[in-house]
């Protein structure tokens, strides 16, 4: 993507466009297919199910149609329409326990002829009744969404190598009916023909630590950092080279074979090359595309307008050209006889739900990045702040002014925007002490970031008011659990709760110099540090491990994140607290605790070598016994989750009796670790600033590198950046430049990366949270780099 296109994201309020042929599902040139079989209906005809119609069907295909809405909810859907559309239309073919193991790919030729449909798509479902059942117990495996090009015919490919398929009993295709553009009359019409099972000679790596060809950062490396590319196994070529843009060899080295806890690899280490420039790696008869060596802006600068493009494209209540018209006026929050139209901010993910705290956190990240770039790139800074103001407006709008906030809404449809009709949605409204602390801290931080003095005064008043409501509610119900499990702050522990209070109180003290806020910040910091391991646990190798946080002061369960992650709160709390006027004794103790926490983060690096991804943390083997804590950390689980806990730990690394490190979190239904590693990366970057420790900055940078290709799949998980990116689960709005998914998952109870082409929620679902955290990490690193240069 050239500079002119990136400038569009800064100067215009229009999404960056995507060439349909860039969509990874669309068929590349055929030439590596060694066997094929067209799937024919045979004795079982295609059958239509649910709503809509199937006006045509043959031995080799069918047509599905449906109107864009219905006047009633589909049978079995909740009466309030929570998290549903207007039903589904589906075509299914029964299979007689067919064994598909001879094939590793399936192709579909699909013709789309829709009218006024927003992002036409098609979901393919598989059922297997063999050794491993599909769908799985969490209904995550066996589904894939294909985002379609309208008024076009394409052949789409799906890698099924990881799909259990020894006894296939059905294949189905469906569409979730979810409204139309501007509620105009419309029709969904899609024809599927020539469903073909194929065997391909070139099979992509989707599981495990071994890369298929090479793992390296598509966005390059810092000049003074470690620079290592990873090849699979033990290879025997004599030399590799790093070649500059003119074709001159800038560095030559010998490959190194290494064995770590994740396997044996051949490494190309060119850390000695420090000259800024554009390079490519060459080895044997292969080479990489060009990548940079240089400062952060050279490496990641293009990601800022791209991520901004995604955030803008997720706007709710605003017509986003090419995606949707004005939306969701009829999502209503009601409290004390008052109503608020709960639209604005940004849609949360692949669906159209809205989370006030996520919009608030995104607004904060945008304001912070704007301030960081104000001198070096004023045009981009202005656009970032403008986008942040859109989110801030929603945060202020949804505040009822008495402690209650409209907090979230489960929406999966484009509503008709008319209040009083059947498709209206109801937003959740709560007076939560935690939400008030969190929002208070975010608004206070934005107040400190804004250059407008009058706006700073207004925001300070809002933040102070919310802090007061939080204090009143906390006094009555300290550390109370959220009233509904769909709230995205449900997993909050006393440790992160106290970190949130530190952030809010410290920011308000800096704005007002009110001694009461200073006292509260000190008190909350003391409570947070009571949740930290300060003595140290003795490891098998004789060392002591300290610095990590427990969920509370009882020190029974470590602080973990497996989906919604706010590890960065610890880094924010340390930074905020150590900037306060405190006694020399407190300064020394808190600095010591900060150093211990930073050392703990650095300790976690070794378990995923030679990759930069940070391990998720340490676990006791009896944490599952604390059911109250376990149930707050894991949603939508059954009894099997408690049984599988030990199996998941066994896949990690035991470092002491009863103590394990997990590379990926213990998780069940909700999987994907981009949010987890980026939250940790932000904390590491903030601690790097605080402790003047370049190792922590490098740790944070490593998480960005993992996302842009330095992973076993040589894929960029940031759509439109780098190369080898795949279609993601963005079923409501379609593929968007700058989108990022929830992240790499694991298979069943393993502790190794798993990244199938299947793009079901949650792991492949696009998420405003990952975009927010990307900006937050990069902003902290840029500030640290700027300080170092000065």
From TrEMBL:
GO molecular function, one term: hydrolase activity
Span of domain Cellulase Ig-like: 219-286
Keyword tags: Carbohydrate metabolism, Hydrolase, Polysaccharide degradation
Pfam families, per the entry: CelD_N, Glyco_hydro_9
Domain (Glycoside hydrolase family) ranges: 300-728
Family named by the database record: Belongs to the glycosyl hydrolase 9 (cellulase E) family.
Protein name, per record: Glycoside hydrolase family 9 protein
Organism: Lacticaseibacillus suilingensis
